[in-house]
Design a protein that fits this description.
Number of helices: 16
Number of strands: 17
Strand order of the largest sheet: 2-1-5-4-3
Strand content: 15-25%
Distance between the termini: 57 Å
Helix content: 55-70%
Radius of gyration: 56 Å
């Protein structure tokens, strides 16, 4: 299966898991939100209705209210005016029964009660001696207000009817109970009485009961209760349909949102899996086929993909070039190793066949020649092994306290015979302030030998070489300066990179193999010591090879 399809499946799985997880978590949150909303509605409804009834009772039971009307009453001159005034008063206040007495004389009476209720109340007027009472007649609730002031007495009876109920907070169903028995409900079918255990916990001070769940007609209702008077109790009620409708509405909207988000995410994942990965497949195909025309459009892009494609293409080309150079170098190294071995073999064969006819001087000459060939081959092999160890990070340095000036003197002394053969003068300018530092003497000796021998090799006869050491603040600087033919600038840039610097030189002169390998090995050694190595050179003016070693 292609990576783009695997990526699409992974993104799809993440999206679906996120979808189900979000839907599950949000559904739980919605349930809690709806539950809290139900609680808030019940509390608000109960408090609003409680306040309304309390204010209604206080309004009718207010002496101030009556005194205002008493003053109006004293200004009325005849019975017709009295009747008109109180007729308006009854209609305006939605009063079911009113008796007005002045000096124990009835001056006005009016009733909207039916005959049975009217007779019951008329026969029991003497019982209504309190300022306020609520009574139950024929399963109907009445508020009775007995208001007295001076010689004026009003007996007002208000029936809790549909008109009264219409003034209540109506976002929930409201129920009226006389003790535990339900008398009136805005839900005309509901007839569930209060549990006595709940009734015993209620008080007239506003303190709603805990939300109770009541099962009625296969439906669950949530109810809160509050006591108004000793006998009268109200409740606010919502069926589970309220929560279900809100929950389903929010859940459905969220589901639609999730579905749209999922579709968008799927389209985005398709775009990512197809369009984002397609350039990489094209890049891989172009690299595999080594065809730049396939990746040209990618390389020319001005975004991150273009930069990445350009980097990959350049890295690939560098690797291919280095691979080609390695093949050339390996073949030349093999040739360089093969040549002395063949020469040794031929010399041994000649000695074996003509051992009696070869003079001792000739034998010594051939033996010395074979020793030289073997030494060169061993040096080449040792350098290759050293380079490999440094490249793999397996080279172990044996650090000791050494004075770099002593190592320079040893190298110059060992190479002086070669310099004398070309009549080359080696000058020394060594800083006496240099103290011993930690270094691998053998490896640093190899570096100095290599640089001085190269200077001798590329300096004409009767030339001059200067070897300088100098103590700086944080490091020791060593310079080997010659007045030889110099090195072109284009070769200097890659002089210490064995795999790229030698391909051209090798073709011109196979002897350059060891030199290139030696400089590459010098760079590995100096870098392993934490220093730097470099060259400054001008054609026909000589070269200055230098390296630094940090003070330890």
């Amino acid at each position: 299966m292609k990576f783009r399809f695997r990526l699409f499946l992974v993104i799809l799985s993440i999206i679906l898991l996120s979808f189900f997880f979000s839907y599950f978590v949000v559904s739980l949150s919605i349930k809690n939100i709806v539950k809290n909303q139900t609680e808030e509605k019940l509390n608000l409804s109960l408090y609003s209705n409680y306040q309304f009834i309390k204010e209604f009772i206080n309004n009718f039971n207010s002496i101030v209210f009556f005194e205002i009307n008493k003053k109006i009453l004293e200004t009325i001159n005849n019975q017709n005016e009295i009747n008109n005034y109180f007729d308006n008063f009854v209609d305006k206040k939605d009063i079911s029964f009113l008796i007005v007495k002045k000096d124990s004389q009835i001056i006005f009476t009016k009733s909207y009660l039916n005959q049975i209720e009217n007779n019951y109340i008329n026969n029991n007027l003497d019982k209504y001696i309190l300022d306020f009472q609520d009574i139950l007649v024929n399963d109907k609730i009445f508020f009775i207000f007995n208001i007295k002031a001076d010689n004026i007495n009003l007996l007002i009876i208000v029936h809790v009817n549909e008109k009264f109920l219409s003034k209540l907070y109506d976002y929930t169903n409201t129920n009226f109970y006389w003790n535990e028995k339900i008398i009136i409900s805005t839900n005309k079918l509901f007839n569930k009485n209060i549990d006595k255990n709940i009734l015993n916990k209620l008080s007239k001070k506003f303190n709603p009961s805990q939300t109770e769940e009541v099962l009625w007609n296969d439906r669950i209702y949530k109810i809160k209760y509050q006591k108004i008077t000793d006998n009268l109790i109200i409740s606010s009620m919502l069926s589970n349909l309220f929560e279900e409708n809100i929950f389903n509405d929010i859940q459905n909207k969220f589901l639609i949102f999730l579905l749209l988000s999922t579709i968008f995410a799927l389209l985005a994942s398709l775009y990512i899996s197809k369009n984002l990965l397609t350039p990489f497949y094209t890049l891989a195909e172009g690299i595999q086929n080594k065809d730049k025309t396939l990746v040209k459009s990618l390389i020319n892009r001005k975004d991150e993909i273009g930069n990445l494609a350009n980097e990959f293409w350049n890295i690939t080309q560098d690797l291919l070039k280095k691979e080609e150079q390695k093949e050339i170098i390996n073949s030349l190294i093999a040739h360089d190793l093969k040549t002395p071995l063949v020469a040794i073999l031929r010399n041994l064969e000649n000695i074996g066949k003509n051992i009696e006819n070869i003079s001792n001087e000739k034998k010594i000459y051939l033996i010395n020649l074979m020793i030289k060939n073997i030494s060169q081959s061993l040096d080449l092999i040792n350098n290759l092994l050293k380079v490999q160890k440094y490249e793999l990070g397996k080279m172990q340095l044996f650090m000791t306290n050494e004075n770099i000036n002593n190592i320079i003197n040893d190298s110059i002394n060992s190479l002086m015979p070669i310099a004398n053969d070309k009549n080359i003068l080696i000058n020394k300018d060594l800083d006496n302030n240099i103290q011993s530092i930690l270094l691998d003497k053998t490896e640093i000796q190899r570096v100095i030998n290599n640089l001085i021998s190269n200077a001798i090799k590329y300096t004409q006869e009767n030339g001059e070489i200067n070897v300088i050491s100098k103590l700086d603040k944080d490091f020791i600087l060593v310079k080997i300066i010659d007045n030889g033919k110099g090195i072109p600038l284009y070769q200097q840039r890659q002089l210490f990179n064995f795999y790229s610097s030698n391909s051209n030189n090798i073709k011109e002169n196979n002897k350059d193999i060891s030199t290139g390998l030696g400089l590459y090995l010098c760079k590995q050694i100096i870098n392993a010591h934490g220093g730097e190595i470099g060259v400054d050179s001008y054609t026909n003016k000589g070269s200055c090879f230098y390296f630094t070693l940090p003070l330890r």
